Amino acid sequence: MRSTLVVGLCALLAASPVLAQPATPAPQPAASAAPADSSPEEDVVGTINNDAAIAIPTFPTNEMLPTAADGGNTEALGRNLARVIYGDLKNNGLFRPVGPDALPGIAFGEVTAPAFPNWRARSAEMLVQGFVKAGADGRLTVGCYLYDVALGSELARQGYVVKPEEWRRAAHKCADMVYSRLSGESPFFDSKIAYIAETGPKDHRRKQLAIMDSDGANHRFITNGQATALTPRYSPDYSKIAYLSFLNGTPRIYVYDIGSGQQRLVTEGKGPTFAPRWSPDGKSILYSMAIAGNTDIYRVPATGGESVKLTDSPGIDVGGSYSPDGSKIVFESDRSGSQQIYVMNADGTNQKRISFFGGRSATPEWSPRGDQIAFTHIAGNLRIAVMNPSGGEMRYLTDSWQDEAPTWSPNGRIVQFFRTAKTTGKTSIWQVDLTGRNERRLNTPVDASDPAWGPVLP
Predict the structure, then answer these.
(1) Cα(342)–Cα(140) distance, rounded to whole angstroms?
(2) pLDDT tens-digit series, residues 147-179
(3) Beta bridge partners of 440
């Protein structure tokens, strides 16, 4: 899937005079918005506590012109851009943003010459300002600036050139810049989520493959629902989605090419295949296959070919999630008599159990940071938990009736999962940060399950 968003990262100019008016940043290759000396915090429980009060007024335009983007013109689009940035920063639990609907507008010339006394009077600590301009070719240029109000200085800036239909990506990129600069963490807002959209009665559910932005916008169905779809996973380069389909009544793994809309069968196994997982380099796919009542984990080249059997134990071995460096695989197995979590080398050697918490443990997923494994713990209720790769320091992130199937944000700071309501059986997608204190439900047009968070878009 080829991106049409061009990112220009301008140098940090905290010690330099601000410009008299916004200048369009020259398009450059994508670069990190975090300064060179910023680094992730050492802790693993997500205790970043900036709690910064961030003002995000409407992005003004130099000239109100029509655009195919939401709002119909550049003036309305400026407010929509600020609203998306506000929503991103509000929902991650680290900041106290105030959005454009609660703030006065600013003039175009103020974007790079903020009225700092006015923002101090509003108790703003940080300020996100920007602009939007329409080009003759229909594309949009969006500028984004981050200021420290107390110091009266600029901390970061970026510029984005986008097609009208991709305006939300510019907003997410802006939010990513702010998040990274203030937290020292890697970005994650400009990413997508694949999931299963569910409709119909409980005993005859229609399950379709669907995708959406990280905030639930730009929803799109991928399959028509004639065959049940389950467990989607994005390829590392975002070009494909591997998923389980019950086409013709038999569970098989297919790869859907997002650019062409074509799909192909991964492998013709001797039995039902399920639970696909990509390797970090995108060159192979893990899957499980059931033969004569025994289920094992296999690896097959993503382009097709001979499969390699990685497990060979009595019972059911399912799943498989690679460590970020591709050296190890975490999976679930009932070889001990109940569902538990195991780790093995990527070639299938050195298999050992790591979950000893009582109850059952399932659906493990390795963090992109490599420091934790998220999983479903089943002991009465189903709850989302995390542990270190050795099986220690287990902590619950949720405490509801039925939460399951965790998937990580690209920066490893947020876990996404699906929740089943006890009274209605309806399913929905939720997110929780590593403190376990900040939960958020994503809005989807229908019931939703089996989420899979993709990497940051290229």
Answers:
(1) 49
(2) 999 999 999 999 999 999 999 999 999 999 999
(3) 431
